[in-house]
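Q: I have 95 residues here and want to know how they pack in 3D. Can you give me a structure?
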Amino acid sequence: MADKWEYHTTFLYADADRQRDFLQGRWPDWEPPKYAPESMMPQLDQLGAEGWELVHMQPVGGVGKKGDVSFTRGYGTMTVWSNAYFCVFKRPRGA
């Protein structure tokens, strides 16, 4: 019998200011940049504790008010910076 999964999608935002206590506790001598990806670790750990396994994480150019995702088209020379990440998690159904 094939495994059955449930999925969870969400946007996570890297923001060192919001996770200052966590970051200083983990790396006391490090001054993280404002959008350090390590600042997402508490959220990722919480989801993991709930049984969710991260199966995909992708930076996105931005998230609109309607939940839409911005991205660039073509091969322009414009650089887009973002601290938003689209994430997909899965866990066995009924976990």
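Q: Anything worth noting?
A: The chain has a mean pLDDT of 91. The first helix runs from residue 20 to 26.
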